[in-house]
Amino acid sequence: MGNFIPAILGILSSALTPKTVYKTLVTKGSSGTIYVFVIPVEAELDLKKAAKAAQEKKVELLPVHEIEKHTGYVRGGCSPIGMKKQYATFIDETALQLKKIIVSAGKIGMQIELCVDDLQKMTGAKLVDLVKEKEKDGHN
Predict the structure, then answer these.
(1) Which tens digit of pLDDT belongs to each residue from 100-112?
(2) Taking the CB of residue 118, how many other CB atoms lie within 10 A of it?
(3) Element spanning 133, H or E
(4) Three-state SS for 59?
(5) What does residue 98 show for φ and ψ, rounded to 5 degrees?
């Protein structure tokens, strides 16, 4: 749950609603390929669904000490936009219910609000089902 702290602090310090705030998670597939997943801040990435979306046998979260090396961002300030390389990116389909979402702007404590379509165009992202089911129905 430590991955949520910077984003949740941003929500608490402003008028943002958790429903519109998304976090960026970076993973590595069994092939060694890096993937980016953008999911609601309060949700948990379903690694099986993530692997299926990436057409990998399995994916694992990138170790914290590798995040900056691959993305150019530090943990807690990882934005899906402007990474060192253009990685395959996936946005959870819940974003389709919203006109705009808020993601990290690339620095801890800074967020940017943008249209889901624009984020998809900038990153080449696919919208897919990525979060554990209990998160989608609001029951933890």
Answers:
(1) 999 999 988 888 9
(2) 11
(3) helix 133-136
(4) strand
(5) -120, 150
